[in-house]
Design a protein that fits this description.
3 domains; eight-stranded mixed beta sheet; five-stranded mixed beta sheet; 29 helices; 31 strands; binds O-methyl-L-tyrosine; binds zinc ion; Peptidase_M1_pepN_Ig-like
């Protein structure tokens, strides 16, 4: 990257003339610096002569001056590693173009021109999986965020919208199926066994939504009639052997289309909707217009190879990508700082969809768990950023839980404050007003203010301030009045030392201890640093249930007696609050035990309270097993660590496991009985059977901690009796953590049974990498040398190493070897797939919040990575921010 182009960096370098040379910094891109592009590109015609090793791309752009931008007599066409074979303007060879780094600069003096550029690319050499690449013999593309510039020279930014016409040709035997965005308008045979197809997409779109697929694929096809009577052809394209596992994806697509009409009034706008499953993919899936490209993980499922969680994830991701057709495609983003405009909103939309499909209570708990384990650590670490970031060096690093999941929570708060009807009116106004535009988060907020009738003046801070607010709660009682004292504190984050108070909507209820009832839920909005709210009519002090349904993405700090939490865990009528009370009970106990330590009496009292609450949950016949499965889950190590300023992973792990083992022993007969009961329920996709499978393995997890021999026997039996992946994987997960003969047997059996099925073999790697087995780290090292392991497939890399980085006892082993392994991986993977490599950096970046001995080891590994002079922009940015 040419640093001379960035004035701020150049200036810094001059001032430091006597200092040792700085490593080359990729330029910092700032939100404030946005300017519209001087040229419009209303049309683009692309021609692809396809080959796995050699593809020729001819691109013809129709350009005209943008009256809304500053006039320029040049046009900058972004490229990334491209060479222009020829450049023509208005039919004449252009002699006066030049390169600025990777970009092509072309002088243009008239009002409108036609620019033709020819480039040649080698998809087989594209291991970054951005742009046009080869995957299992087929060709496919990934253009978000900046992949189109690896295909051809173009203003590769989301505010340049064009109508695409694409002609593709190639050998018919190799690529019998040729797909692109929009509709196929013509096709034919060519010379020498080639064929061609021409596609036209009538909807103007930015380059990041372009897609092309060529390969030997088959489709599971269906139809959907939209609310205004449009007949849409649906296809799920896969390799022939995968066809039997596509039914769930197709059904999920139909449900998503139906739901978006009902819930948001959004209808599909083409006659064709294609989904293609690809084995090598950096992310989950991509919403290209009319041609979604998916990681196979989020398409393929049947009961023998996919767990219930896999089925749910597929339904959710299919919905997410489909919903982007409106929130992302019809209304797109002006620049990448606005990413949460499409991602936060679309995550909220997919969450609401899944709540309707799978049940609201459990889905809400799952979503909060994801937020806490993935987003909270971002907010409290060196990579903290607002949902609308202010600057970046590499946009791929900002596809984060903050932009996605916290972004969804922020819009959910607007919905909570407005109520569902007014929220819908705000959404309608947003879509109507900005259809066909590249919009901003500010546009969304304004539409909500006008359409939903909300005053969001102060609420805008949620877009600009990073950090998870902490709300301190105290309930005071005197006479017949209960007074709720609330205060908030938004912690400092990198670049944002001082924060302002934000509006925090908290749904609350006050329970009468004697009757176990409350008089109705209320919404309290804390808009100041401190405030108090009085409630009359309480002769006795009530029990407070707060942040019901997790109405605000904050942490709640309060001191409550164990008895109140046991009360709420057993009988709160808000399922989330019930879950939360149980979590609070366990969190406060483990944090105290792993922090300052507990004396015997305090430990016994803490454990007894948890036991009482857990026993009540196990015995509650009115609870469905799916919800029971949530309530019995212990808080994750990550979430527990988040509660401590400086965490000792070893102590937290020991306390958490110790508690689990104690509960497993204390409630052994209850867990055995539960396992026996749910084992009787036959396989089915209905809620009761799914709940049974969930709690079945959870019972084993407690028993494995409390009575390993008994659990090994039961897990072996569960594995052998399993007629579905949920039970089989659950049993194998438990066995993998134990030292028993069945462990090896069943790991071998599982591998043999599924050899050749990539997604299931990923599970086999993961189970060993997340295992509680004391030698897990050695197992991971051996698995890295397994013939099925490769750095070229992101799913496989994640299945081993991402799983390992999330395994606290192995990753944080005292020797520092876990850190070394992840650093070695980052260095080896970076030149192959920078985007995937950079995603491993945050696990080491937590060092400031870890006890000093481990922190030094983690930092040392980050420094070792930073010392490499060949880092990608992705990894460079994450490592320097983590050390900063
Ligand atoms: N927009 C997609 C996410 C996505 C982003 C970048 C990618 O490049 C590798 C791929 C997908 C979504 O939100 O689903
Ligand atoms: Zn998305």
């Amino acid at each position: 990257m040419d640093i001379a182009r960035n004035p701020s960096v150049a200036a810094e370098n001059t001032q430091m003339a006597d200092a040792p040379p700085e490593p080359q910094q990729p330029p910092l891109i700032r939100r404030e610096d946005y300017t519209p592009f001087p040229w419009l590109v209303p049309q683009i015609a692309l021609e692809f002569e396809l080959g796995i090793e050699h593809t020729l791309v001819t691109s013809t752009l129709t350009v005209a001056r943008n009256a809304k931008a500053q006039r320029s007599d040049t046009i900058r066409l972004n490229g990334d590693g491209l060479t222009a074979l020829s450049v023509t303007v208005d039919g004449e060879p252009a002699g006066d173009w030049s390169m600025d780094g990777d970009d092509l600069i072309l002088p243009l003096h008239g009002e409108a021109h036609a620019i033709k550029v020819v480039t040649a690319i080698d998809p087989s050499a594209n291991s970054q999986l951005m742009g046009l690449y080869a995957s299992s013999g087929m060709l496919c593309t990934q253009c978000e965020a900046e992949g189109f510039r690896r295909i051809t020279f173009f203003p590769d930014r989301p505010d340049v919208l064009s109508t695409y016409t694409v002609r593709m040709s190639g050998p018919k035997a190799e690529f019998p199926i040729l797909l692109c965005n929009g509709n196929r308008v013509a096709e034919g045979e060519g010379e020498g066994g080639t064929h061609w197809a021409e596609w036209h997409d009538p909807w103007p779109k930015p380059s990041y939504l372009f897609a092309l697929v060529a390969g030997d694929l088959v489709a599971n096809s269906g139809r959907f009639t939209t609310m205004s009577g449009r007949e849409v052809e649906l296809n799920i394209w896969v390799r022939a052997e995968d066809l039997p596992r596509t039914e769930h994806a197709l059904e999920s697509l139909k449900k998503s289309m139906q739901w978006d009409e009902q819930a948001f009034g959004r209808e599909y706008d083409l006659d064709l909707f294609n989904i293609v499953a690809v084995s090598d993919f950096n992310m989950g899936a991509m919403e290209n217009k009319g041609l979604n490209v998916f990681n196979t993980k989020y398409v393929l499922a049947d009961p023998d190879t996919a767990t219930d969680a896999d089925f749910d994830a597929i339904e959710g991701v299919i919905a997410h990508e489909y919903f982007h057709n409106w929130s992302g495609n019809r209304v797109t983003c002006r620049d990448w700082f606005q990413l949460s405009l499409k991602e936060g909103f679309t995550v909220l939309r997919d969450q609401l969809f899944s709540q309707d499909m799978q049940g609201e209570a459990v889905k809400r708990i799952e979503d909060v768990r994801i937020l806490r384990s993935a987003q909270f650590p971002e907010d409290s670490g060196p990579l903290a950023h607002p949902i609308r970031p202010d600057s970046f060096r590499e946009i791929s690093n900002f596809y984060t839980a903050t932009v996605y999941n916290k972004g969804a929570e922020v819009i959910r708060m607007m919905r909570t404050m407005a109520g569902p009807e007014r929220f819908r009116a705000g959404c309608d106004l947003y879509f109507e007003r900005h259809d066909g535009e590249a919009a901003t988060c500010e546009d969304f907020i304004r539409a909500m203010e006008e359409g939903a009738g909300l005053d969001l003046e102060q609420f805008r801070l949620w877009y600009s301030q990073a950090g998870t607010p902490k709300v301190t709660v105290r309930l005071e009682h005197s006479g017949d009045t209960a007074t709720l004292h609330l205060s908030q504190q938004v912690p400092p984050t990198p670049g944002q030392p001082d924060k302002q108070a934000m509006p925090i909507p908290l749904r609350i209820a006050l329970f009468d201890r004697a009757t176990g009832k409350h008089e109705g839920e209320q919404l309290v909005v804390l808009g100041k640093a401190e405030d108090s709210f009085a409630f009359t009519g309480f002769a006795e002090p009530p029990v407070l249930s707060i942040n019901r349904g997790y109405s605000a993405p904050v942490t709640i700090e309060r001191t409550v007696p164990h008895a109140d939490l046991v009360f709420l865990a057993a009988q709160d009528d808000d399922s989330f609050a019930r879950y939360e009370a149980m979590q609070e009970l366990v969190v406060s106990h483990i944090v105290a035990a792993a922090g300052d330590g507990l004396d015997d009496a305090a430990r016994a009292a803490g454990r007894a309270a948890i036991r009482t609450a857990l026993a009540a949950i196990l015995a509650d016949a009115a609870l469905d097993d799916s919800m029971r499965g949530e309530l019995v889950m212990l808080p994750s190590q990550t979430y527990l660590s988040e509660q401590m300023l400086i965490a000792d992973p070893g102590r937290i792990h020991a306390e958490r496991e110790g508690l689990k083992a104690w509960l497993g022993r204390e409630l052994e007969s209850e867990f055995v009985a539960l396992h026996l009961r749910v084992s009787e329920i036959p396989y089915g996709l209905e809620q009761a059977a799914r709940g049974a499978r969930k709690i079945k393995t959870q019972a084993l997890v407690y028993l494995a901690a409390g009575n390993p021999d008994l659990a090994a026997q039961m897990a072996k039996a569960q594995y052998e009796a399993a007629d579905n992946m949920t039970d089989r994987q659950g049993a194998l997960m438990v066995l993998t953590g134990l030292d028993s003969a069945a462990r090896t047997d069943k790991l071998i059996d599982f591998y043999r049974r599924y050899q050749g099925n990539e997604l299931v073999i990923d599970k086999w790697f993961t189970l060993q990498a997340i295992s509680l087995h004391p030698h897990a780290i050695e197992h991971v090292r051996v698995l890295a040398g397994h013939p099925d392991f490769t750095l070229r497939n992101p799913n496989r890399v994640r299945s081993l190493y991402m799983a390992f980085a999330g395994n606290p006892h192995a990753f944080h082993g005292e020797s520092g070897e876990g850190y070394r392994m992840i650093a070695d991986l980052i260095l080896a993977l970076d030149p192959i797939n920078a985007q995937t490599a950079a995603r491993f950096v945050p696990s080491l970046g937590r060092w400031r919040r870890i006890e000093p001995v481990r922190a030094a080891l983690m930092r040392q590994e980050l420094e070792r990575i930073a010392a490499s002079d060949r880092l990608s922009r992705d990894t460079f940015e994450q490592v320097t921010r983590s050390l900063g």
